[in-house]
């Protein structure tokens, strides 16, 4: 156990949901409190890293701001999160913890849409950029290891292990962390399934910060 295994390392983290505007007062979003991503940011800072936290709309304070080792960029939409993240590709570890909306609204209305009797609007969606997949495309090999080391997250309603393994292959990343169970949203507790090249293992239910610390120790050994 090393106390500051990430000293001198740069860690990039996306956290929270994204929000896709339908009009100035309405939108669609994903369920995410941001707590897991912010816990990872705190754990990375404790481990000595310099952190860039790209946060979607969430009501959380920036961890350990007084260290001066964390910068935070607040974003709203997936497109904005993509742009902010791609500006920081030059990092050692990337944790894609954000619950990014897979689709945005093709033409968000400039003014609030008015109700038209009982008729409901039909919304047209467009696919959002895949931040993790795009960042993973920039990965190079440094000292025989992937650089940056990319960690994806998975929250599924069924077959977590199968979907998470499939995600790891499809996105071409070395590690996927699955959130076990449906009760993680907004909770301080979580349970993780870690999938990497050596197989899978569970980290038992604990506070998100405890899990984040364990995850940081694990990932620090990979780089
Ligand atoms: O397969 P899926 O896209 O659901 O994988 C989830 C992982 O990908 C998470 O780590 C999430 O942060 C990341 N992701 C992303 N950009 C997207 C969608 C998902 O970075 N547009």
UniProtKB/TrEMBL annotation:
UniProt key word Cell wall biogenesis/degradation: no
Similarity section: In the N-terminal section; belongs to the HFCD (homo-oligomeric flavin containing Cys decarboxylase) superfamily.
Span of domain DNA/pantothenate metabolism flavoprotein C-terminal: 7-221
Catalytic activity, reaction form: (R)-4'-phosphopantothenate + L-cysteine + CTP = N-[(R)-4-phosphopantothenoyl]-L-cysteine + CMP + diphosphate + H(+); N-[(R)-4-phosphopantothenoyl]-L-cysteine + H(+) = (R)-4'-phosphopantetheine + CO2
Pathway(s) of this molecule: Cofactor biosynthesis; coenzyme A biosynthesis; CoA from (R)-pantothenate: step 3/5; Cofactor biosynthesis; coenzyme A biosynthesis; CoA from (R)-pantothenate: step 2/5
Name this protein carries in UniProt: Coenzyme A biosynthesis bifunctional protein CoaBC
Primary role: Catalyzes two steps in the biosynthesis of coenzyme A. In the first step cysteine is conjugated to 4'-phosphopantothenate to form 4-phosphopantothenoylcysteine, in the latter compound is decarboxylated to form 4'-phosphopantotheine. Catalyzes two sequential steps in the biosynthesis of coenzyme A. In the first step cysteine is conjugated to 4'-phosphopantothenate to form 4-phosphopantothenoylcysteine. In the second step the latter compound is decarboxylated to form 4'-phosphopantotheine.
Cofactor(s) needed for function: FMN; Mg(2+)
Key word Magnesium present: yes
Free-text comment on the cofactor: Binds 1 FMN per subunit.
Positions that bind CTP: 102, 112, 129-132, 153, 167, 171
One GO biological process term: coenzyme A biosynthetic process
Keywords tagged on the record: Decarboxylase, Flavoprotein, FMN, Ligase, Lyase, Magnesium, Metal-binding, Multifunctional enzyme
A GO MF term: FMN binding
Entry's Gene Ontology cellular component terms: phosphopantothenoylcysteine decarboxylase complex
Lineage: Bacteria, Pseudomonadati, Pseudomonadota, Betaproteobacteria, Burkholderiales
Residues shown, of full length: 181 to 403 of 403
UniProt-listed Enzyme Commission number(s): 4.1.1.36, 6.3.2.5
């Amino acid at each position: 156990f090393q106390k500051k295994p990430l000293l001198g390392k740069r860690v990039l983290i996306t956290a929270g949901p994204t929000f896709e505007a339908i009009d100035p007062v309405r939108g669609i979003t994903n369920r995410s409190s941001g707590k897991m991503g912010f816990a990872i940011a705190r754990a990375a800072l404790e481990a000595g890293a310099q952190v860039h936290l790209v946060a979607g709309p969430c009501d959380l304070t920036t961890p350990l701001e007084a260290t001066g080792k964390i910068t935070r960029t607040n974003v709203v939409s997936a497109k904005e999160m993509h742009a902010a993240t791609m500006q920081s590709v030059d990092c050692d570890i990337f944790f894609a913890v954000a619950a990014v909306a897979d689709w945005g609204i093709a033409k968000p209305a400039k003014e609030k849409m008015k109700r038209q009797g009982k008729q409901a609007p039909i919304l047209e969606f467009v696919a959002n950029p895949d931040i993790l997949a795009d960042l993973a495309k920039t990965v190079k090999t440094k000292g025989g290891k992937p650089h940056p080391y990319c960690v994806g997250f998975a929250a599924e309603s069924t077959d977590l292990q199968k979907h998470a393994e499939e995600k790891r292959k499809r996105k071409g990343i070395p590690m996927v962390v699955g959130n076990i169970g449906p009760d993680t949203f907004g909770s301080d507790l979580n349970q993780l399934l870690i999938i990497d090249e050596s197989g899978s293992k569970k980290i038992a239910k604990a506070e998100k910060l405890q899990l984040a610390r364990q995850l940081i120790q694990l990932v620090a050994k990979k780089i």
